[in-house]
Amino acid sequence: MKTAVAVIGAGPAGLTLANLIQQSGIPCVVLEKASRREVETRPRAGVLEHRSVELLARHGLADRLLASADRHGACEFRVNGRAFRVAYSDLYGGRTHYVYPQQEVVTDLIAAFLEGGGDIRFSVSDVSLQGLASVAPRVVWTSADGVREQVSCDFVAGCDGFHGVSRPSIPSGVLQELVHHHGIGWLSILAEAPPSTKAIIYSMHPDGFAGHMLRSPTVSRYYLQVDPSESVENWPDDRVWMELQKRLSLADGSWKLTTGKIIEKRMLDMRSHVVEPMSYGRLYLLGDAAHIITPVGAKGMNLAMNDAALLSVALSDYYQTGDESGLKTYSDDCLRRVWRAQEFSQWMIGMIHAPTNDPFHARLAAARLEHLASSPAYAASFAENYVGP
Ligand code: APR
Asked: Which residues, including other chains, have CB under 8 Å from residue 186's CB and lie 6 or more apart?
């Protein structure tokens, strides 16, 4: 079997790339470790920036999203029970976020790719990338039926997330790994509970940060700052709801949290991880395979789509005219956006976490929040970074 591009992984990065290059007439095959059902039901991120939606819409991939996603242009900060809103859409050209769960994005992208005649192999195992430094790499895998199969290709797109096989296939010493542990823990909770708010809430409380995020009319996501060494077992459902109500409440007692069935509860590893460069030979890394960002600022899925957009243009240029310049600058082009997002996420982490054992940083966080609440210029800069420049 021969194709132009072997795409490893059917997450937002792999599926966006596969659709875009398919539309440019570039043949590809997508290899995915999980079953179709798994990838279409796995809850993860849920916020798309304006320009991610524009990208999808430009390629006819956003019909269901545009018909059903909630658009958000404001968020709320609560500091010790007192609230202020930042109407970031008004501050930044009317741009909004689109709240649309990642599994819906993935479902739509799979449907569109298959409709266009695309080839996805689900439930594959033992994927191995070979000859990446040559002009004819090879990908070998075991199919869902247990048959060893292979494809020769011109390029491999490593879109298989942080724990995938692509990044570890690069010889040691090639990549520089830039890692930062934020030293905070987040308990992440997904519940079948209608939102108790119209806008995302970031709440600062003496016991730590709490967040109320939006997913759909029936499902909500919440975060609780906890000690990084905490285990989920210490957080029975009753304790989670009590703590959320306490940390999110308003001083006048007017706000009430609607509870529901908790369907996911896990500790998040709050770290940032970037590899440079995002390519090796004929292998290009995209999305979480190349960079991990904390959920603060909701950038993960958007960065994955940006990588896919850049690589699809570079590949189109290569196949249409033989121009390799986009492939050569791919890594630098992606990393500019990646580092800007990391910087913003880091800034926001510093603002919404007031470590009790670190009064200096607690005062800085309070000063940053006060600045955001009182300065239209500062709020406009937040808006630009938050909704996406
Ligand atoms: N072979 C094939 N597929 C693999 C392998 C492998 N060895 N390892 C992992 N995969 C698949 C996973 O099952 C998953 O479907 O690769 C896909 C990677 O998808 P994501 O982890 O969603 O990564 P990405 O597409 O880069 O999107 C990043 O995901 O974690 C969120 O917040 C993050 O929204 C961001 C987005």
From this structure: 223, 224, 225, 226, 267, 268, 270, 295
